[in-house]
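Record type: monomer structure entry
Structure origin: computed from sequence
Chain ID: A
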Amino acid sequence: MAKGGWTVGRVAEVLSSGRAAIKGRDERVVLHVRVDPTCPRELARATRDALVAERVGGVVEVMTLSDVPGPGAEMPEAALVLVGRGPCAEVASSYARSGVPVALVVEGALDAPAVELPDQAAALVGVVAASSPEALSERLADWLTRVCEHPLALAANFSFCRHAVVDALVSRCAMENAAVGAISLIPGSDLPIMCANQAKLALDVAAAYGRGLEPARAVELASVLAGGLGWRALARALAGALPGVGSLVKAGVGFGGTMAMGGALRLRFEAEEALEKRPEPRETPAPVLLAVEGAEESDYITIEGSAS
């Protein structure tokens, strides 16, 4: 096989990536939510509704500001403080000093209390400002995606985070493929590397939606390879038409092709989820005819239901 082609080692690398994606999906994600009793009710309800784990690995511990985690308690991956008139800054400070990213959840950025910390700890404190449940869901997902160490598990457990996690995965892979296209030195060596990156991305996106290594993954990987060949043909045609800028063309096609492929995967899984969540149609029971003693057939009483 040509140098830089689809070697056995590269195929094994993709398969190993699939196993790593499943392992990442199944990691534990522990979140703390500290609630000030005077915080806005609407934001509290929106936070509660969003943080409903769909898998056993998602753990959400809800406490008041005065609660103290017991000895040996598991360290959370991130913490949220729903801000009211209580000592929220102190609670946020205690998490940041322990190395835990913490977000102050408020209706407006000006409502966030000042937290006095050294620079290193202060970098762990964020503000999630939202005046509506819809805005809170989006901004909270963006923040959690940035700070959590297990993004695949975060997405698999909390559906509102999937869009943000997948967008981050796709952007990172697109940048990597743009770099591969720009610096490739051996003609044709960039295609297998880009396709391998996209195959790994497809497996990561599937894991983010809670999927495993099912037969459907083989179809997706075949589609990725076919798409890679198509984008490669486009890159060659453009490079031939624009001599002297071949590397830039290949970088652009690598970036754009990966973004398009990632977007298509996200739409595919979102559509699949929508179908799964659609309520099953309820069958209308056949009418039951009850005969009244001595009545004619036309006098039968029709009721809705089924005979037992």
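Annotation 1: The longest strand covers residues 29-35.
Annotation 2: Confidence is low (pLDDT under 50) at residues 288-293, 297-308.
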